[in-house]
Design brief:
By secondary structure, this protein is an alpha/beta fold. It has a single domain, classed as Arginase, Chain A, CATH 3.40.800. Strands 2-1-3-8-7-4-5-6 form an 8-stranded parallel beta sheet, sandwiched between helices. Strand 5, helix 7 and strand 6 form a beta-alpha-beta unit. The chain is globular. It starts with 8 loop residues before the first helix and ends with a helix.
C-alpha cells in the first residue's frame, strides 16, 4: 500500500481490483471470553446457511480458513487460540484480499486487530456494539474477557505480561476508534471513554439524528482525507433483539436492521473497508429454530451490504 501512497484509498482499490473479486473468510470459534460456549458454533452455523452462495456473485474467488480451534486448551503455551488467530490473520491479510472474520465472542479481536494493524499501520476501527467492551480487570463486573478487548488494545492494562500473552501488543489509540449503537455501558467503561475522549454514538442518537448523519460524522472523524483503511468490528447485539435474538447478551432498544443496512451501504460506498468481523452469534441462546434462522438471515444481509 505504501507504494501507492500517491493514490487515495478508493483509487487504489479501483485500479487493483482489490476487494472486488477476492474474499478471504476466517473462522474464529473462540468462546473463552465469556461463559456461554455455544458462541463457538456461530461461524459454522453461518457457513452452513446461504452465506457463501449469497456472496459468490460478488466475488470471483472465496477462500475459507480456520483461524482458531475452540477445542484447544485455553491459554496453555503455543496452544493459545488467540495467538493462533493472530498468526492466521496476519498471514491471510498479506494476500491483499478483502477479509471477513466470523466469530466467536468479541474477545477474538485481541487476535485479529493486532494482525490487521501490523499490515495496515494507519487502520481505523468502527466498533458496532451494544456494549463498550472497554472494561479493565479492575472495572469489569464479570471478569469476562469479551468485555475487555478494547481496553487491552488501547494498552489500558498489561495483558501482554500474562502467561501465554507475550506475543500481544496494544495497537490502538483513542482517536483510532468510534463506537456506534452502544446502550449498555458499565460505569467504568463510561468513565474510561470520557476520560480518553473516545467518540461514541448510542442507539438513541442513531434514532434521533438518523443513521446517515451518524455514520457520515463517524467516518469523517476517523478518516477525513479518505486515506485510512477501515476495519468494522460488528457485534450482532447492536441490533435490537427482535432482529437478532440468538446472542449471549441481548439488550433492548437496539438499532433496526434498516439502520444497520444503511450504515453498511454507506461504508461500502467509501471503498475504505478492508476487513469485517462478525461476532457473538450464539445459536444455543434461543429456544426455537426460527430465532436462529432469523439471526443468521439478518447477519447474512448485513455482511452482503458491507461487502
Amino acid at each position: 500500500m505504501q507504494k501507492n501512497s500517491q493514490l487515495n484509498l478508493g483509487e487504489f482499490f479501483t485500479q487493483t481490483g482489490y476487494g472486488l473479486s477476492e474474499l478471504s473468510i476466517i473462522t474464529a470459534d473462540i468462546h473463552q471470553g465469556q461463559q456461554k460456549p455455544g458462541v463457538a458454533k456461530g461461524p459454522t452455523t453461518l457457513l452452513n446457511g446461504n452465506l457463501i452462495q449469497n456472496l459468490s456473485p460478488k466475488f470471483f474467488d472465496i477462500k475459507c480458513y480456520q483461524g482458531s480451534e475452540s477445542s484447544l486448551p485455553f491459554l496453555k503455551g503455543s496452544s493459545n487460540p488467540y495467538q493462533r488467530l493472530f498468526k492466521k490473520t496476519k498471514k491471510i491479510v498479506q494476500t491483499q484480499r478483502q477479509t471477513l472474520i466470523l466469530g466467536g465472542d468479541h474477545s477474538m479481536s485481541l487476535g485479529t486487530l493486532p494482525a490487521l494493524k501490523y499490515h495496515y499501520p494507519n487502520l481505523k476501527v468502527l466498533w458496532v456494539d451494544a456494549h463498550g467492551d472497554i472494561n479493565t480487570p479492575k472495572t469489569s463486573p464479570t471478569g469476562n474477557l469479551h468485555g475487555m478487548p478494547v481496553a487491552a488494545l488501547l494498552g489500558l492494562f498489561p495483558l501482554q505480561k500474562r502467561p501465554s500473552w507475550e506475543w500481544f501488543h496494544p495497537c490502538l489509540n483513542p482517536s483510532d476508534i468510534v463506537y456506534i449503537g452502544v446502550r449498555d455501558l458499565d460505569w467504568g467503561e463510561e468513565k474510561i471513554m470520557n476520560n480518553y475522549g473516545i467518540r461514541y454514538y448510542t442507539s438513541e442518537q442513531v434514532k434521533q439524528q438518523g443513521m446517515h448523519k451518524v455514520i457520515e460524522e463517524a467516518c469523517q472523524y476517523l478518516n477525513p482525507e479518505g486515506e485510512h483503511p477501515l476495519h468494522v468490528s460488528f457485534d450482532i447485539d447492536c441490533l435490537d433483539p427482535r432482529y437478532a435474538p440468538a446472542t449471549g447478551v441481548p439488550v433492548k432498544d437496539g438499532m433496526t436492521l434498516n439502520q444497520v443496512m444503511d450504515m453498511a451501504s454507506y461504508i461500502k460506498s467509501t471503498q475504505q473497508l478492508v476487513s469485517l468481523e462478525m461476532v457473538e452469534f450464539n445459536p444455543d441462546e434461543v429456544e426455537y429454530p426460527f430465532e436462529v434462522n432469523l439471526t443468521r438471515a439478518c447477519m447474512e444481509r448485513v455482511i452482503q451490504n458491507f461487502l
